[in-house]
Design a protein that fits this description.
This protein has about 130 residues and is mostly helical. It has seven helices and no strands.
């Protein structure tokens, strides 16, 4: 006979996993790391403007502004996804080399961030603005 907690754990839906991803501070940090690894050498200024914003989103998330952080992460991940989608690799080996795999992982994390962060932002509750927590 299955116990009650294991049944509840088994019944977690995809939306609960999406909410957990969107409320976590780890995905924007991973995305900032991947973007930096792709664009640090040679330095490309426009793509390198994304990691500081994503790290600021992580900072907000750690200070319990999860809904706002999810919205910022979703917006900036979507913007990076649009910009990265425009680049095309010329040869087949460029798609499956180390840089191509990192680029694919970056775009995958961006896509998940857009879905999860957007879901958390749309369905999340905002904390009282103007209340100072000490």
């Amino acid at each position: 006979m299955a116990s009650k907690p294991s049944e509840e754990k088994a019944k977690q839906s995809a939306l609960s996993y999406l909410r957990a991803w969107g409320e976590s501070p780890i995905p924007p940090t991973i995305l900032a790391t991947l973007i930096t690894s792709l664009h640090a050498r040679p330095p490309q200024l426009l793509p390198l403007s994304f990691p500081p914003v994503l790290l600021a989103s992580t900072f907000l998330n750690l200070y319990s502004y999860t809904t706002d952080s999810a919205g910022i992460t979703a917006a900036w991940s979507g913007l990076y996804l649009l910009l990265a989608r425009r680049r095309k690799s010329e040869h087949m080996m460029q798609k499956f080399g180390t840089r191509g795999i990192v680029r694919g992982a970056t775009m995958g994390v961006c896509g998940i961030n857009v879905l999860a962060g957007g879901w958390v932002y749309v369905t999340g509750e905002k904390a009282d603005e103007g209340v100072i927590v000490r």
